[in-house]
Design a protein that fits this description.
It is a single chain. By secondary structure, the protein is mainly alpha-helical. Helix content is 55%, strand content 4%. The chain has a single domain (2-165), classed as Rossmann fold (3-Layer(aba) Sandwich). The protein has helices at residues 2-9, 25-41, 54-61, 68-86, 104-118, 131-141, 152-165, and strands at residues 15-17, 46-48.
């Protein structure tokens, strides 16, 4: 839904995939392939920085696992801003702003720091009100639906919550 919403504002969009945080590899592949399928279905040009980055991500969050989201946001927003600046884009954004499960204050701060670093505007929009509608649309399109944020620590938390409910 964020793609449609931004297109409604007028800019031409290009997708950019860089997610070294997603683990295990089967989850990474499922999400990447879902994006490729979605991009084709809505005629969205897509740049794939297809690097499975378990070691990069874990090195970056160790030993401060509690601060992993901030590291993840910084890593990904830095890559997006750098690519956008080096390739003549007017701004960069993120579909993470669509999720009610993300820390939007920290995400926005990471976007702004990356934008300042590379001299390109960060285009933040709070798309959380579109979340349920987007989930329904993804189901209708038969797209893979993720069950956790993506990192191995998030997956661990998901299973621990399930175990504690039992």
């Amino acid at each position: 839904m964020s793609v449609e919403a931004l297109r409604g504002e007028g800019p031409a969009l290009t997708g950019y995939w860089y997610n070294p945080n997603i683990h295990p590899y089967t989850e990474y592949r499922s999400r990447r392939d879902a994006l490729v399928s979605y991009a084709e279905s809505v005629s969205l040009p897509l740049i794939l920085r297809d690097e499975y980055g378990l070691r990069t991500f874990v090195r970056g969050v160790c030993p401060d696992f509690g601060n992993r989201c901030e590291f993840c946001y910084a890593l990904r927003m830095d890559a997006a801003a750098k690519y956008a600046a080096e390739n003549g884009f007017d701004a960069f954004s993120t579909t993470l702003s669509y999720s009610p499960y993300q820390d939007h204050d920290r995400l926005r701060a990471a976007m702004e720091r990356a934008g300042e670093k590379y001299g390109i505007p960060a285009l933040y929009r709070d798309f959380r009100p579109l979340y349920r509608e987007g989930q329904a649309r993804a189901r209708a399109l038969g797209l893979y639906m993720q069950k956790y944020c993506g990192c191995v620590f998030s997956e661990e938390e998901r299973y621990l919550k399930k175990a504690n409910r039992k």
